[in-house]
Amino acid sequence: MVELTGNGLTIADVRKVCLEGEQVFLSRKSLQKAEKSREAVQKIVRDGRTVYGINTGFGKFSDTLIHEKDVMQLQLHLIRSHACGTGEPFSNEVSRAMLLLRLNALLKGYSGIRKELLDRLAFMLNEHITPVVPQQGSLGASGDLAPLSHLALALIGEGDVIFQERKRTSADVFKELGVQPIVLEAKEGLALINGTQAMTAMGVICYAEAEALAFQSEMIASMTMEGLNGIMDAFHPSIHEARGYPQQCAVAERIRNILADSRLVTKQGDLRVQDAYSLRCIPQVHGASWQVLDYVKEKLEIEMNAATDNPLIFDGGRTVISGGNFHGQPIAFAMDFLKMAMAELANISERRIERLVNPHLSDLPPFLSPQPGLQSGAMILQYCAASLVSENKTLAHPASVDSIPSSANQEDHVSMGTIAARHCYVIVQNARRVLAIECICALQAAEYRGADKMASATRAFYEDARLIVPSITEDRVFSKDIEHAAQWLKKNKAGWTTSRIKREPDGWKRNA
């Protein structure tokens, strides 16, 4: 089980809970902090102090005072009115991550909500009651208001959920399980929806998939090196140490390890003096993407443990400050940065695909065809990769540079971070398909060169991959091969992945 404290939640923990189904439990110390914060809210209501979101309206209505008898109705109206999401729902994994991250943030004890509500969020996670949350509609400031309102609707029995693989109303599921919907009290609705948990949840899932794909890209690129008789001198440690980027050095080291016993790679001067950039610069380009991944991971893990609602309650309620921690700019930048990093992994992969299929760039059969002319072979596989790479270039346009004022100009600068995270996810899926295409072509090239001459690591990968994608002996519907290979990679079962690598102080190294 994963203990939630409001601090110290990691991306690995999110994987365990949201992807592997591990249960959570709440820290007793954190629950005590939350209860003290709740007592402060109740005292504010009793004393009639004017505090934003507790007994005032929201946004431009912040100067409208709300009578004590109406504060509960205020929270209900807030959730209903702000549930304006549209479009396709987030995946179950992302919605579960939203639940987890919002629960963790509320456990910090600055939000003033009841233990009952915290327990219900944990109950939903542990019972796999997953809110149905539309993807579109968040500006990424004032919190992810629309998505998180749909999450809150599920808590109060007015939303839809996925339970036991069926879409149902949360009211029906709660009734079946013998629990009552939550009735929101002062500040609780606002505490649920003022936060960056939609963009951060989407970002964490993006990162988890991107990290695995970055490792897999090195194995696939190594196989391409064998298919093209690539020159290993470009991976010599001295070159990379001379530049000094640890991620670049680590990529070069991993590829040297992968290809250590290959009889298909060459030395400079054996066949040619140097390779094209898409081979020679793998450490530099992939290493730069790893720099971005490291940056993004740091920002996500800060945000996952941040108090991002408004107002925040300090000093037992003596200090209640209305601020802007809900603004998603840090995650918006991180997601836009990750978009570029993953788009470039796909970009350089597509160039390697071109070298594998273009008869003017290698001595391999034209388009890896078993009968050039009569059969087209991998010709249109490269077209597909080029299309995906081009689509990624448009999706990589930064969302974070846009802003549209809202709430009568009270909320006059927003991050669009949730858009950045959503587009990042599409880029990751496209990049995986491009790398799946490179994998298919590299398998065929390695087979042509002689699989028995491959390195031990790439040969093991080759044999596993051939169970997914058979040899091209005759033209067939390659769309199926692309999807099968992409799903194989997505399931994280394809060789050199995070399960086989650990982080050391001097960079990424393979487990012994």
TrEMBL record:
The keyword GTP-binding does not apply. One of its GO terms (biological process) is L-histidine catabolic process to glutamate and formate. It catalyses: L-histidine = trans-urocanate + NH4(+). InterPro entries: Aromatic_Lyase, Fumarase/histidase_N, HutH, L-Aspartase-like, Phe/His_NH3-lyase_AS. Keywords: Cytoplasm, Histidine metabolism, Lyase. There is a cross-link at A141-G143 (5-imidazolinone (Ala-Gly)). GO terms for cellular component: cytoplasm. Its EC number is 4.3.1.3. Belongs to the PAL/histidase family. PROSITE patterns: PAL_HISTIDASE. The modification 2,3-didehydroalanine (Ser) is found at S142. Contains an active site 4-methylidene-imidazol-5-one (MIO), which is formed autocatalytically by cyclization and dehydration of residues Ala-Ser-Gly. Pfam families: Lyase_aromatic (PF00221). It is an enzyme of class 4 (lyase). Pathway: Amino-acid degradation; L-histidine degradation into L-glutamate; N-formimidoyl-L-glutamate from L-histidine: step 1/3. It is found in: Cytoplasm. This is Histidine ammonia-lyase. One of its GO terms (molecular function) is histidine ammonia-lyase activity. It comes from the Bacteria. It comes from Metabacillus mangrovi. The keyword Repeat does not apply. The gene is hutH.
